[in-house]
From TrEMBL:
Gene3D superfamilies: 1.10.530.10. Residues 196-296 form the Peptidase M56 domain. The chain crosses the membrane at residues 12-38. The keyword Ligase does not apply. This is Transglycosylase SLT domain-containing protein. CDD domains: M56_BlaR1_MecR1_like, MltD-like. SUPFAM superfamilies: Lysozyme-like.
Length: 537
């Protein structure tokens, strides 16, 4: 999975977690405040609900941005080599002679991508839900355009809806001079001027509160998280809070008397009993409840500090939860910025410079986040530990850098393997033998005996000397360690042909274009693990 899709999946899961927990915390806190007599007004409750919704939607991208800009955690508190591990690592299990294990396929079985399948299923279903909801909303616009208009002021139009429908309001993002805010009222209200006035005032208040704009957010959340009952309940609760806030605004603002407004609500409830459900993305006069009628006759003083304190308490819980959800969904994944910082921090003078690009990050995360990759690299570090200094003496004799140890890690997990071995290798191409995985032709070219009587590729000391000679020759030929590593896997003829036909010496560009395989990226990721073994902790 690419970095973009991994980030998208992380954000999706994080938002789902925060919406669920945030809604539960908010309802529990409101219940506790009510039990303690610290009631909030309807408009303050609506504000707290919207603030919680905004926190759940904005915290994941904010946390991702901060994590990308400021790499933290254990990346910068580490030892730069695995020497500290050598006292507790067991001896590697290799011998000079070939083992007689039965040959099997060296290809690891491909596991079914369950995560990708689930992501595709959820994405398809969410897309279908959102498309269906938005199409219903567009059909509603065409229907409103065809209804007779009672009045239009600016970009607000009051129209008559179908006789069996209840009053509702909606908003469409449209260019002038077309109306964008709509209020639909049933025809029977034309015979009741007082009821018509209060109904229109109620629906206009929805526009003032931006309920009709936020309805799009609820519509999308309902489609994206159709599988999450907590998100659905959050949306229904916000819709109820919007109605209560409208009622409170009209009565407390003196635009409607409580008794007249209660009669209007009761009449709307009686007529709405047989009405079809409201279209998606609209707000309307929901069925009144006992609480809604009683609220009209209760006086609740506005104390903004209570709502602010409630949202602050919810935020104090959601912020660390957002960081945890991101870490849990990302696992141990390393970002491009973190890998680049890691390469700079662990770079030693004279060693192979690691050029971190998207391919290197992908390989590094394969080592760090997947069970097979972690097991392979842990085995490689385990086998390397007791023999690291022996290898380094041979490399230093030719003035070669320490980072070349990662080649043995990637090729064989530092295991002395015959060609018939079933042990895995991360190197693409022809399979060789020994720690450095020489193929027969290259081994003979550098003085190793490979025949039916003897295979000196399994003589670790001799093979290491041959590998050092080969690395020295390749670097002298290309004067670039990444090209030298590419030639170690592809062969000089292949690399020379690529350089001649493309005129490009940038291995990253050649790999992206498909001229070279991902061997160099794999080795560079191995170098980062070699220098930073704590990534596997």
């Amino acid at each position: 999975m690419s970095a973009f899709w991994r980030e998208l999946a992380t954000g999706y899961v994080s938002v789902a977690v925060l919406l669920t927990v945030g809604y539960g915390l908010l309802r529990a806190a409101l219940a506790l405040m009510g039990w303690l007599g610290l009631h909030l007004s309807a408009r303050q409750t609506l504000w707290a609900g919207r603030a919680t919704l905004a926190l759940a939607l904005l915290l994941p991208p904010v946390c991702m941005s901060v994590r990308g800009l400021v790499p933290t955690g254990p990346l910068f508190t580490f030892d730069r080599s695995v020497v500290r591990l050598t006292t507790r690592l067991p001896e590697p299990a290799w011998s000079a002679g070939p083992r007689t294990t039965a040959p099997r396929s060296t290809e690891a079985p491909t596991s079914f991508p369950v995560g990708l399948a689930v992501a595709l299923l959820l994405g398809t279903a969410a897309g279908v839900h959102c498309t269906r909801e938005l199409r219903q909303h567009l059909r509603l616009l065409r229907r409103l355009e065809s209804q007779p208009r009672v009045r239009q002021v600016g970009r607000v139009a009051v129209v008559l809806c179908d006789s069996e429908a209840t009053a509702f309001s909606t908003w469409f993002p449209r260019a002038t001079p077309h109306p964008s805010a709509w209020v639909a009222v049933p025809p029977h209200l034309l015979e009741d001027p007082a009821g018509l006035r209060m109904t229109v005032l109620h629906e206009l208040q929805h526009h003032r509160q931006r309920d009709t704009v936020i309805a799009y957010v609820r519509l999308l959340l309902r489609g994206l998280f159709f599988w999450n009952p907590a998100v659905q309940a959050f949306g229904r609760w916000l819709a109820t809070c919007q109605e209560l806030a409208c009622d409170e605004a009209l009565v407390s603002g003196g635009k409607a008397r409580p008794h007249d407004y209660a009669r209007c609500l009761l009449d709307a409830a009686l007529r709405a009993s047989g009405s079809p459900p409201l279209p998606a993305g609209v707000t309307g006069m929901a069925h009144p409840t006992t609480r809604r009628i009683e609220m009209l006759f209760q006086s609740r003083p506005s104390r903004p500090h209570r709502a602010i304190g409630l949202v602050a308490a919810v935020a104090l819980t959601l912020v660390p939860l957002a960081l945890w959800a991101q870490s849990a969904t990302r696992g141990r994944a390393v970002t491009l910025a973190e890998a680049q910082a890691l390469a700079r921090s662990s770079q030693r003078e004279g060693d192979i410079p690691v050029v971190v690009d998207e391919q290197v990050v992908a390989k590094l995360n394969q080592f760090v986040t997947t069970p097979k990759g972690r097991a392979f690299m842990k085995k490689a570090l385990t086998n390397l530990g007791p023999h690291r200094e022996t290898f380094m003496r041979t490399l230093r004799a030719r003035g070669l850098p320490e980072g070349l140890l990662a080649v043995a890690m990637v090729e064989s997990a530092v295991t002395n393997m015959p060609e018939t071995s079933t042990n895995p290798s991360l190197a693409p191409g022809l399979r060789g033998a020994g720690v450095w995985m020489f193929i027969p032709s290259t081994a003979r070219q550098y003085g190793l005996q490979v025949d039916a009587e003897r295979d000196e590729r399994l003589d670790v000391a001799r093979e290491t000397e041959a590998a050092a000679a080969l690395f020295s020759a390749l670097h002298g030929r290309y004067s670039d360690w990444r090209l030298a590593l590419a030639a170690y896997n592809h062969g000089e003829e292949k690399v020379d042909e690529v350089l001649r036909t493309t005129g490009v010496r940038d291995v990253s560009e050649l790999t992206r274009a498909g001229h070279l395989n991902d061997y160099v990226s794999t080795v560079q990721a191995g170098i980062l693990v070699l220098r930073n073994p704590q990534l596997l902790d």
